[in-house]
Design goal:
By secondary structure, the protein is mainly alpha-helical. It has one domain: TTHA0068-like (Hyaluronidase domain-like). 67% of the residues lie in helices and 3% in strands. It is built from five helices and two strands; from the N terminus they run H-H-H-H-E-E-H. The chain has helices at 3-19, 23-36, 42-59, 63-76, 89-105; strands at residues 83-84, 87-88. Strands 1-2 form a two-stranded antiparallel sheet. Strand 1 (83-84) and strand 2 form a beta hairpin. The longest helix has 18 residues, at 42-59. The radius of gyration is 14 Å and the shape is globular. It starts with a helix and ends in a 15-residue tail after the last helix.
């Protein structure tokens, strides 16, 4: 198996874990991808890592950490548009804005609407 195949497999494994709501596992897989390969879109991968960790913080009732990592992830996606790695970037960015609003309004983390997690 060559590096391109390994990269694709790692990315897809992370995406599957993210879609299952296994945000910690998604972050770990994408972190391996980010650290083991110097990719042209490493900022994009870093944004996905930060987004996943935002949800890990949220699940651990760390709202400050969740907000911080969400904000950092938004910055990583700025230079991307259209479709990237089969992800609709505009829809992702819109979802992050909606998520940011929800993070500001939420009073009880237990009431978080997990359907607001952006699809990848």
């Amino acid at each position: 198996m060559d590096d391109i195949q390994k990269i694709d497999i790692l990315f897809e494994r992370g995406k599957i874990e993210y879609q299952k709501g296994n945000f910690y596992d998604a972050h770990e897989i994408w972190e391996d991808l980010w650290s083991d390969y110097y990719l042209k879109d490493r900022k994009f991968i870093q944004g996905l890592i930060q987004l996943s960790v935002s949800f890990v913080h949220l699940k651990n009732s760390n709202m400050k950490g969740a907000k911080s990592l969400l904000k950092k992830s938004q910055g990583k996606f700025l230079e991307f548009e259209g479709m990237h790695r089969s992800i609709n970037i505009e829809r992702l960015k819109e979802g992050l804005v909606e998520l940011e609003r929800e993070y500001e309004l939420i009073e009880n983390i237990e009431n978080f609407d997990w359907s607001l997690v952006p699809e990848l």
